[in-house]
Amino acid sequence: MIVRTLDEITGTEADVRSENWRSRRIVLAKEGVGFSVHETTLYAGTESTFWYANHVEAVFVTSGEGEIEDLGTGAVHPLAPGTLYLLNDHDKHVVRPRTEIRCVCVFNPPVTGREVHDENGVYPLVTESPAPA
After folding, report:
1. Could you give the CA distance from residue 18 to residue 91 in angstroms, rounded to a whole number?
2. β-pair partners for 42
3. pLDDT score of 114
4. Phi, psi of 8 (to 5 degrees)
5. What's the CA gap between 53 and 45, in Å, rounded?
6. Of 60, 55, 8, nearest in space to 34 by CA
């Protein structure tokens, strides 16, 4: 069993920040469970383009408001607490938080924590063997 708190992650290499967002990676590939879990904060008034060409991501909004635009279709969807979006087709998208948005994100395959978004907003596919039990 693994039990972790956000306080334990804060300020470590699992606490990743950019100008537009902060991602605290709670469960990573090294745990060997087939997915990763992140608590992400998207800062108000920013605009972030993402394209997870190598991952499927589910995002559940716990607080804040904004919108997500599907760049493939042009559809714009509101984001508010209780909203989940699933990037099941590796959808290229833009997130525009009106207020600070906090959300829980799940990635498959799991991220290692070393990925960095490239110029297209893509995480490379980095694999890692699970840590020994």
Report:
1. 21
2. 21, 101
3. 66
4. -65, -30
5. 26
6. 55
pLDDT at residue 130 in the model: 59
Give me the amino acid identity at 3: V
pLDDT band at 127 (very low <50, low <70, confident <90, very high): low
- Intra-chain end-to-end CA distance of the chain, in Å: 10
CA-angle at 9, arms to 121 and 36, nearest 5°? 50
Phi then psi dihedrals of residue 112, to 5 deg: -90, -20
List of domains in the chain? 14-108 (2.60.120.10)
Alpha helices per DSSP H over the chain: 6-9
93 token code pair: 């998208």
Half-sphere exposure of 15 (CA within 13 A, CB side): 8
